[in-house]
Description:
Elements: E1 3-7, H1 11-29, E2 37-41, E3 45-47, E4 50-52, E5 58-63, H2 68-82, E6 91-96, E7 103-104, E8 107-108
Parallel strand pairs: 1-2, 5-6
Antiparallel strand pairs: 1-5, 3-4, 7-8
Helix pairs in contact: 1-2
Amino acid sequence: MPHLRVRGMKEEELVKISTELLDELVRIIDVSRDHxxxxxxxxxYIFDGEINKNRYPFVEVLWFNRGEQVMKETAxxxxxxxxxxxxxxxxxxxNDLQKDHYYENGEHF
Length: 109
């Protein structure tokens, strides 16, 4: 934890930035590198009965809340890494997990 779910961008772009992106996220969030996961989710955007070729990166961050400042820094870093691929908009959405609802191997985390 944290877990990043990424859709709306090319897989090879995400792979290209993954190492340096994790370097920065480890520094900001102060969590061991091996606790992070990045999941690529292929997606197709459809508009008015047609496949829309424009991509719209959407990054969902599932984590235990670390406060507004860390959230802002995290969103900014993710956006900075994705923007050079010339996407008009990049969305980062934080989904705060409840520790008492999170189990790993049947035990509370």
